[in-house]
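Researcher: We plan to redesign the surface later, but first we want a full-length starting point. Tokens attached.
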């Protein structure tokens, strides 16, 4: 995990330099070609903020790479028992791309909320218009049903979707990534240190995804935008995944985070 953080920091420095270079080029363009300065200033803003965010992320990764081998906090699992076998993971239609995990009665079990300073919303909004939004870093917080913030999630900027999960005290808990496979589609992985926890493979449309445990046993089937007939009035207008589980034990928080990553990657 220490080497992973160090390599990611180097990658963020390179990408941050590219975005800051684009910022300088766009900012100087009106002076070089006698064009409208204000328009180019607005265009340069998202590249500047994304570049600065990547550099800041790289600095944190270099610092935390020295602490990555230390023992992390005890990772808690949900205390709820008797979870339903069929649930719904929604993508709320908001700026934050908030994900929420419900049972079919509409009871909330956990949710993911995007964080970040006020100016980041403006920057990512402009970046979305310029189709640079998927490359931007993002920050999220995972909350349980009691509104307790249990984890912080950082998506790194760049072409490859990489997510680092930390406890509120800053200890590195999990690492998640999405890797393109030959022929289209994505393979998702989640690790605790060097140990594989969960994995899943999708087609290029992400219509149906099977989540596997380390023993390659199916734990969850995810069906994109499927409407549960028993709760069509409640989830018929929502976007997300219908989840079919294979047991009624409390879903581990690591598995919930993994499902949220898949859901977020699908919404990009």
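Model: Full-length starting sequence:
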């Amino acid at each position: 995990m220490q080497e992973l953080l160090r390599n990611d920091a180097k990658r963020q420095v390179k990408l941050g330099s590219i975005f800051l270079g684009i910022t300088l080029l766009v900012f100087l363009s009106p002076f070089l070609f006698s064009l409208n300065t204000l328009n180019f200033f607005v265009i340069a803003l998202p590249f500047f903020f994304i570049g600065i965010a990547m550099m800041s992320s790289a600095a944190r990764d270099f610092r935390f790479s020295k602490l990555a081998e230390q023992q992390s906090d005890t990772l808690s699992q949900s205390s709820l028992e008797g979870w339903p076998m069929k649930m719904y993971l929604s993508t709320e239609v908001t700026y934050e791309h908030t994900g929420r995990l419900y049972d079919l009665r509409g009871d909330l079990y956990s949710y993911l909320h995007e964080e970040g300073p006020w100016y980041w919303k403006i920057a990512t909004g402009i970046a979305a218009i310029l189709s640079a939004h998927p490359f931007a870093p993002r920050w999220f917080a995972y909350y349980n049903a009691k509104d307790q913030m249990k984890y912080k999630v950082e998506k790194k900027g760049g072409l490859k979707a990489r997510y680092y999960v930390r406890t509120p005290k800053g200890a590195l808990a999990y690492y998640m990534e999405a890797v393109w496979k030959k022929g289209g589609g994505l393979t998702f992985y989640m690790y605790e240190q060097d140990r594989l926890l969960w994995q899943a493979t999708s087609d290029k449309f992400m219509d149906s995804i099977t989540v596997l445990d380390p023993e390659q046993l199916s734990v969850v089937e995810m069906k994109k935008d499927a409407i549960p007939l028993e709760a069509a009035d409640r989830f018929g207008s929502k976007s997300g995944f219908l989840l079919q589980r294979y047991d009624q034990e409390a879903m581990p928080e690591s598995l919930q985070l993994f499902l949220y990553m898949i859901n977020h990657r699908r919404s990009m």
